[in-house]
Specification:
Layout lengths: L3 H33 L2 H30 L8 H8 L14 H19 L7 H36 L1
Length: 161
């Protein structure tokens, strides 16, 4: 039977594959929005930016629940969860993401809130484009950090077997 750590590592890798597709849709959506001057593609980009952050947040929730045994609650739980991922928990796990990634993801967390609470025709196209431009280097960085974390989980599973 696979250990919980191995299963979590596999889930992180699975989610990263889906997030890669979301990232590609973000880039292509903006290209189409610009090429066709079509605001409807901008709506798609915003929705995929929302999906990008939400996918990462799913991973963070799993880590908080399975490893940390502390899932943030309350009004600001999204912010607390993201912050929790920057903290090393001695004898449990290293920090999941760096402070740099935290700062960048915090922008996407805030934008996720906008997407959920504002009509699409009110999206700021300049803001959406700024987030898209930042998305590629951020995706590379967060993917590297999460895959390194998945590797850590597998090493822990091997050591405890």
């Amino acid at each position: 039977m696979k250990s919980e750590l191995t299963q979590l590592a596999e889930r992180i890798r699975y989610e990263m594959t889906d997030l890669e597709r979301v990232h590609e849709r973000i880039i292509e959506g903006l290209a189409r929005a610009k090429r066709l001057a079509d605001d409807y593609y901008l709506d798609s980009v915003a929705l995929n930016l929302h999906g990008f952050y939400s996918g990462l947040e799913r991973i963070f929730e799993l880590i908080a629940t399975i490893l940390d045994d502390i899932a943030p609650q309350g009004k600001n739980w999204h912010q607390a969860l993201l912050q929790q991922m920057t903290i090393e928990l001695p004898n449990i796990r290293p920090a999941v993401i760096s402070a740099t990634v935290y700062e960048q993801l915090n922008e996407y967390r805030g934008f996720r809130h906008v997407v959920r609470n504002v009509y699409t025709f009110k999206f700021d196209p300049i803001r959406v484009e700024q987030l898209v431009v930042k998305a590629s280097p951020l995706f590379v960085q967060v993917r590297n950090e999460l895959l390194a974390f998945a590797q850590f989980l597998e090493q822990q599973a091997d050591e405890s077997a």
